[in-house]
Design a protein that fits this description.
Elements (H helix, E strand, L loop, with lengths): L1 H8 L5 E6 L5 H13 L3 E7 L2 H10 L8 E5 L11 E6 L11 H8 L3 E8 L2 E10 L1 H9 L14 E2 L6 E2 L4 E7 L11 E8 L4 E15 L2 E4 L15 E11 L4 E10 L3 E10 L15 E2 L3
Parallel strand pairs: 1-2, 1-4, 2-3, 4-5
Antiparallel strand pairs: 6-8, 6-9, 6-11, 7-13, 10-14, 11-12, 11-13, 14-15, 15-16
Helix pairs in contact: 1-2
Length: 294
């Protein structure tokens, strides 16, 4: 609860805290623990739309420790609160930071937060690196007993990457900040990234990582250089290439990544342009996408 504790200390009156995507209660418990530690009373609204999780949350209310918690069975994007929150706490991050729709959910829930309110997390960034990972690639090839499925190379995989070769330094991809003060909220993104190989090896795809600033300088990360100690809540993402590509020493690896948003879903597209061009993977979200209203 350190970031909640620190943000609560920043305002010395009673706090209203919103736990959006409250799940089965760990964020709620952390908020109450931070309140006790800070000696600052809080009122908590636990907003959750999953019916099974709501049942678990309601069972928590049998404990007097949760007496200041109100369970809200609703989508955070449509609920109208009786009061706005000083602190909005969420855990909507995925292995590639935004691949579980944290930007869309928090932008929709931003109206629950006071104008000077605090969002936890306040910023998160995805990262990419080209890798050789024969074992993971072979597992993708073998997952269909009737032979390799073309669709298998048009989706991202959450994988604990071991025995891999990273061609170059990990580079930042997409960044999101909350509260979002943009005049027009648009969470679509595009980036072109350039890497250089210093060995000859097969390029099988791209590893995806993330880090997140919870409050000020408090960071959680699965970035290889800044990985949070003993944190196993997220494994990296892997975005495969349909054709494994030989890369020679000194050759450039050029890739384009897109985060595409329409009225019903969000998806990623990626395309290698050097050293050997390949078609856009997952074009138009044909295989892999995340529904905005599921």
């Amino acid at each position: 609860p350190q970031p909640i504790h620190n943000s609560a200390k920043a305002v010395v009156s009673t706090q209203s805290t919103g736990g959006v995507g409250a799940g089965r209660g760990p964020l709620i418990r952390a908020s109450l623990n931070a309140s006790k530690r800070s000696n600052i009373p809080i009122k908590v609204y636990a907003v959750e739309k999953n019916e099974c999780a709501v049942l678990t949350l309601r069972n928590l209310l049998k404990d007097p420790y949760f007496s200041e918690v109100t369970i809200v069975d609703s989508d955070m994007r449509s609920w109208t609160p009786p009061e706005k929150a000083d602190i909005l706490v969420s855990e909507l991050l995925g292995s590639f930071s935004d691949n579980e729709l944290s930007p869309e959910c928090l932008d929709g829930a931003q109206r629950l937060l006071k104008d000077d309110g605090v969002s936890i997390p306040c910023e998160y960034t995805s990262y990419l690196a080209p890798i050789m990972c024969r074992r993971v690639y072979n597992n993708i090839l073998k997952q269909n007993p009737d032979g390799p499925s073309p669709e298998s190379f048009h989706m991202g995989y959450v994988v604990r990457l071991k025995n891999v070769w990273v061609f170059d330094k990990v580079k930042p991809c997409f960044t999101f900040r909350h509260p979002n003060h943009a005049a027009v909220m648009d969470n679509s993104r595009h980036i072109s990234l350039e890497f250089t190989s210093d060995i000859e090896a097969l390029l099988h795809g791209f590893a995806g990582y993330f880090d997140a600033h919870l409050y000020k300088d408090i960071l959680i990360s699965i970035h290889p250089d800044t990985h949070s100690p003993d944190m196993f809540s997220w494994f990296p993402m892997f975005f495969p290439l349909k054709v494994a590509t030989l890369v020679r020493p000194g050759e450039r690896i050029l890739v384009d990544f897109w985060r595409v948003v329409d009225n019903v879903k969000v998806w990623y597209e990626w395309a290698l342009s050097e050293p050997q061009p390949q078609p856009i993977h997952n074009s138009e979200g044909s295989t892999y996408w995340i529904g905005l209203f599921s």
